[in-house]
Predict the structure.
Amino acid sequence: MTERGNIRVKSILISLSRYVSPAMLAAAGVLLVTIIALFVPPYIGMADNGDYSRIIYSNGLYILNPDYKTHFFGYFVKEYGIFQHFNEHAAALFSSHSYFIRLAIWLNELFYSDQLFDIRFQTIIFLAMYTIAIYLFIESLTWKIPRKYGYPIALIAIFIFADTAYTAFFNSFFSESIMLIMTMLVFAAGLLMYRNRYNDYVLMAVFFISALILTTSKQQNAPVGVILAVTGAVLVFIRKERSFRIWMSSILVALFLSGIGTYVLIPKEFVNINAYHAMTRGVLMESEDPEATLKSFGIDPQYAVLNKSIYFEPFTTVDVDSKILEDHFYSKYGFGSILAYYLTNPSQAFKMLDIAAKHAFTIRPPAMGNYEQSAGREFGEKTTFFSLYSNVKHALAPKTFGFVILWVILIVGLYMPSFITAVKAKHMRHIQRLPLILGMILLGLSGIFVSIIGAGDADLSKHEFLFTLVFDLVTFVAIADAMRRYLWRSDEDAAIQ
Amino acid sequence: MLFKATNKILLLLMIVLLVMITIVPAPAAHAEADKPVRVLLLYDSLAKGTTKSGNVEALQHVLAAYSVAVTLQSYDNYKQGDLQQYTKVIGIHNVPDIAITNQDFVRDFTQYRGSYLHIGTNVPAMVQSKLNLQTTQVNEDTFKLSIDDFSQQAIQTEVLTYITAHGGTPYGLISSRSGRQSPFGVGHDGIAYVPYFEKGNLSELAIGYVLRDWLGWTQQSNTYVVFKEIYPFSDLERLEQLSDELYEAGIPFVVSVRPIFINLDYPATKRYFETLKYVQSRNGNLVVNVPEISAILSPLKRDLNNSFEMFIDAMVKQGVAPLGFGAEMYWTYDQYFTNSGLGLFDTAILFGNEEIKHKEQAYTSKSYPSTLYSVQLDFLEQFEYREKALTDFPMNTAITFNFNDNGQELNEAVKWLRDSWVTFADLKYGDHSVVTQANKIRSSGGSLYINDQLIDLASAREEVSEEYEYKPKEQKSFERWFNVQNKVFIVIILVTIVAFGGFFIIGHRLYKRKYFK
């Protein structure tokens, strides 16, 4: 019976593989789960934390419900108004997210209404892109490998990446949805180049466009462009044609510049809140002597009274945008001087990193609810639908920075032998895998560093999305490589033709 | 047996009686005396985008100085019977030639017998007849307004009603370039009329004179000097210097100081309090400025009452006695703020609204027995006045300066104060009190009391110790054991490295001997 059963399973797999590749299975699975979560009532989405207005007004949308503010943090809202007159709201912040919102508005006007915007038109765009990203990502790992490895990898991918902690972002105006899709696309493009699947020029374009969108989706992502430009340097050499090398070099330079551009374009008002927290919830918080620390920055030691204060407190001593802070506080420090401070006070830096690590394994922000008010759920209630992975990760991951370091060492260690072999063989395509993975890890770590330097420990769980995502992507790739037996060694040349 | 039962009943009766005595409120007459006067303020339009914009708010600001509880309502929202609940009603008409269409109001108004003040156009027949008014309306005019010892030239307005004949008491004078003249307002027997009222010019002050009589306010008014925008991290040395300068010039003053709700035991906080104590010793009085509302929708729940109490108690501990609070006027129109936090005080300095951030907006204000109406110097500088006039404002007034680090501005303020002949009042000569659960602070006759103990204003400054443990030392267990263990490990590792090095050298030699003979 078992043998017959085995044969039957095998025959099903064989006939399945004729029509459905593992990549297709993963993409279809993620698509199906996400459609059920986001498009079947009760709809799952993300409540506004007050940030939406910054992005929606400049893109021609406005808040319909006069009681909207009572929904903050509590309920997901799916309908917004479309401005019918000239929109005087200047862009509050520069973000690639705007283009997706505008495309969604256009679709909405085409198929639904020119006055009422349903956020799910944006969701459709994101979901289509996410499905493609999943397909490419899984294809890079399962192409030309035995079915018995391919399908389990695809199932694990569904388990992790169809988790509603990730996909609920699609039903929101948070730029995390862009980060999710684009990071996956960048990684997938890199891995597909490593495996020499598809046309290199097409993959180069995917790599560039997704990296560019990722970098410019959020100010916090400014380092992404720089990191990918540096760790992607090996990509220049994977082909010998001059034209490819020129193209690849130019896009890496463009990415580098886009990172710097994103940093420069940070709007001022945004900086004040973060600058405030960078000092009060960062530099001062773990200092043994805040007054001495302030003096080292050339700030009046009396500002020690602000130690540990949070701007989001309902009542504060001073307005973060007040002149007294502009003149005597913010003007005395910046990203660079805080970085220098942490470098010269490593023990404090490690304490901050440990605090950061406490939130580094959370995907779903704990503050925001997932349901609409009409669904009759409690204020701020979160969904449990397809959330096993995110819940387990949140509950079980060791939340110390030491664990993050061990994880990095482990991953780098696992890929090192194949890297050394590739270097010896001067096989550029194979050499590329470790720098790519390292680049992804650095992307995640930059998320942590930037949050601490830029805003102390305030709002960490939302700022560390990039790390938690990269952790999942890289760990998943490592597990998949281990399953398909290509962890220690590079993929065979036979497969790379 | 029967005796016992009667005893029990008697005992029960006594208990019930005792409970009733404690529960039943004090006699109604007493409660009545403490109740503030209630005023219904009706308006037709807030007139946004016109010169009249903000006049409703300005009126609320002036009314607060007379300690009245104001209920703000538009004519559109008026409901039948509302008028009957008030004995004092004010109607502001900002839109000319449009009569009130709310029939409930029109009907109730014909029955209304209380005091009524009409401001603007569309004067009701009742007001016209009671004041024997005759008016004429002029489109666009430029006029001079004068009242008491103040006058302001060249005020421009769009539509102006001139009172050409009247009965009752006239207030101030409007004289136009074209030669027309009209009183600024007239009043008689609870009925008053003011044809022109805008925010930001002399009419804002002038209406104070009309209101004073209309409300029957008899208390003597005083003028105070107030400095605001004082933070724990302001230039404290400059603040002490300012106190010295004003003290030497014999000018009592008030500082509205920003509160801190955390780190109350930090040396920096103590230095702040020491400076405030110094200010107090130099004829300075203190009021607690309300905090900044940073995040209106903060998900964090905080009890403002509790926070204020903590701050005030910390001040008291260091001998600093605040007497009231300083806030933008809108704070008194917010149920959350007035119930939580502001309930500790009976004295308010109300600044003009700058940015309104309500938590629970209320349409009825909370009044404070002692309220100062705040004006900035540049407001007064629009007028011509005799210096003495500044002591004769109709309501308690605070001439307010920002304490900022622009040395020149501050020097100019001190110079202005020093050069003026105005006698500024000392807040602590009035009766003011602040009550927290732990402390009762009050002032009377120029003295300050904390829990009924007179405080010595000239008490010596205490040096604030710089020694402070910002981070509590972590509880360490087995510290010595781990120290020993560390040393043992260091030795083992060193030995291992040396041994490993030795083996490496030996191995290298063996290798060389084997292959390089």
